[in-house]
Amino acid sequence: MSPPRPDPEPSPQPSQARRTGLRAALAALETARAGLDLPEETEEAEDSARRIVRALKEGGALEGRSELALAADKVLEGRATGFHAAVTGFTALLARAVDAQAARTSDAILIIEDDSIFNRTLASALKAPGRRLLVAESAASAREILKRDSVTLIVLDLILPDGDGRNILLELRSDPRTAGLPVFVMSARFSTRTKSECFALGADAYFEKPLDIEAFSVAVGARLERYYDQAQAARRDPVTGLPNRAAFLEAWGRLRDAAAENHQFALAVLDLDHFRWIEETWGRQVSDNVLRRAAIRLALALRQAAVFARWDGAEFIALFAGRSAVEAGVAVDQALTMLRRVDFRPGGDAPLTLTFSAGVVDVPQSQPMEEAIALADRLRYLAKASGRNRVVAGEATVSVPTRRILLAEDDPDITRMVTRHLRREGFEVVAYGNGEEALANMARSGAALVISDIQMPKLDGLELLRAIRSHPELRHIPVMMLTAMGDESYIVRAFELGADDYVIKPFSMREVTARVRRLLRRPSVAGVPVT
To answer: Which of 41, 84, 142, 282 is deepest in the core (most CB within 10 A)?
Structure first.
C-alpha cells in the first residue's frame, strides 16, 4: 500500500483551477468552504457545497472512487456542527483525485486562431497539468499539425487568413482520424444561420467573441473529462469490468518500452472449462453473472500480474513482469486452486464449480505479442486436450491427443504446405483433391475439422459446405474456408451456408493454426473420435 499523500497545496486562483469538470467543482468548493467561515455567507455556502457534491455524485463523477463517494455522503448527510469538517475532508480528497487525473492524462488542445495576442490569452486560460497546447494561425498550419500530432480537442475560429473555418470543420468530420474529436467553434459572427450551420457540420459548442474566458475554460475542461472517461470506457470489458483486448495491448506496449533490456516477461492464457455448457443450461444473464464473479476472483488471485484482461469469450489473459513462465505458472496454478473452491451456483441450484485450462510462456521483449499469444494458446489447448483443469507452463511435457483434420484442396503446393505444418503442430491430416472425393470419405474419416478451398473440380467448396451442413452426422463439424476468393459476396455466402471461419490466400500458417485450435475448442467437437 502506498503511503498517504500530503495535504494538497492551497487552491490556485479560479482562472488556473477550473480546467476540467472535477477542477471546476474543486474551485467552486474552495470558494464555498471559504464562505463557511463568514457568518453572513454560511447558509448560502452550505447550500452551494451540497449542490456541487450532489451534482458530482449523481452525475457519475464519483463512480469507482469509493473513498470520495463515502466523503460525499458525509457532506450530504452532515449537520451544522460537523459540516465544515466534512466539506474540508471531501475537498482534500477531491484535490488528490484531480492531481492523480492530471498525472495520468495527456491532453493536447489545438487552437486554430490567427490572432496571436488572443492565442496567448487562450493558452494562459487553458493551461493545466497534463495538457499540451498547440497553436495554428492558419488552416494550412492546422492541417500540418494534425498530420504529425495526436490531438484531444480542437478550438476553431471561423475567420482564418487562408480559408473559412466551416470548411475546416467539414474536413475534420470527413476524416476518420478526427471525426470523433470535440470541436469548439469561436466566432465574432453573431448570425443565427452561421451558428446553426456549424452545429449541422458537427461542432460540439459555439462561442461568440468576445469570450467569457472563465466559462470557456470550464466548458473545455468538462468536455475533455468526458472524452477521457469515454476513452477509458472503450478500454473496459462491459461484462467483467476488466481491461479489454485493446487496453491489454496498450499496456504491454508501455511496459515493454519502459523495461530495461532483457527484463523478464511471462504471458498466461486462461480459458474457463465447459463455459458454453453454462450458457446453454442457464442462459446469457446467468452466464454473464458467473463470468463476472469469476473475473473478480481471478483478478484478486492474480494481483501480482502487471495486467489481467478479458481476451475473448470465457478466455482471460495475464501479463507478468519480472517473472519467468515457470514462476508465473505457479501463480496461475494457485489461482486455479482458489477458483475450484468457489461455488458459483445460480440461485438454489446444485453447486457449480469452475475450472480453467491455461498455457504460460516466456515473452522476450523482441517477440511480437501476437506470436507469444499463439504460443501460450497452443499450451492452453494442450492443457484442454489433456483433460482440462490444469496449467501447462514453459515447455510442454505432455502430448496432445491427435486430432484429425480433413483438407479439401486441389492445389498440390498448398496441400503440402498445410499438411506439413499442421502435422508438425501435432494434428493428423487427410487430404483430398476435390470436393466430391472429400465428401464421399468424410463420414468415415473421423475428422474433427474440415478445411476447404472454394474453387475445386467436381464439387466446389460452397457446395461441399452445403452438403456438410445438410448431413445429420456431419453438420456439427466446424468448417474453415481457405481460399483466394476474397470477394465480399463469397464471404457472405460462405457464412450464410454455415462456415465457421474464412481465411483468404495468401495466408499465415501461424494464423491458420491458431484458428484451427480455436475451432477445435468448441464443445460440440470435444467427443469426436479418431478412428
So the answer is: 142
User: What superfamily would CATH give domain 107-233?
Assistant: Response regulator (3.40.50.2300)
Cα–Cα distance list, 340 to 41, 298, 302, 525 (Å) = 60, 11, 15, 25
Distances 491 to 407, 475, 500 between C-alpha atoms, Å: 19, 19, 11
Q: Kindly give the interhelix angle for 412-424 and 509-520, rounded to the nearest 10 degrees.
A: 60
The model carries a pTM of 0.45
> Is residue 245 within 8 Å of residue 312, measured between CB atoms?
yes
Give domain 263-393's CATH number out of 3.30.420.40, 3.30.70.270, 3.20.20.150, 3.30.360.10: 3.30.70.270
What does the block give as the cell for 217? 475554460
Per-residue pLDDT of 153-208, as tens digits, reads 999 999 999 989 999 999 998 887 788 889 999 988 777 888 999 999 999 999 98
The angle subtended at Cα 492 by Cα 487 and Cα 494, nearest 5°, is: 100
Helix, strand, coil in percent for the chain, rounding step 5: 50, 15, 35
Tell me, which fold does domain 404-525 have in CATH? Rossmann fold (3.40.50)
Q: What is the pLDDT of residue 359?
A: 94
Non-local (6+) Cβ contacts of 445 within 8 A are 404, 406, 430, 531
- Please say whether the beta carbons of 72 and 95 come within 8 A: no
**Where is 319: in which H helix or E strand?**
strand 315-321
All three cell numbers of 219: 466548458
Strand partners, 225: none
DSSP string, 77-114: H--HHHHHHHHHHHHHHHHHHHHHHHHH--EEEEEE-S
pLDDT, tens digit (0-9, with 9 covering 90-100), for 397-408: 555 556 789 999
All three cell numbers of 141, joined, read 498550419
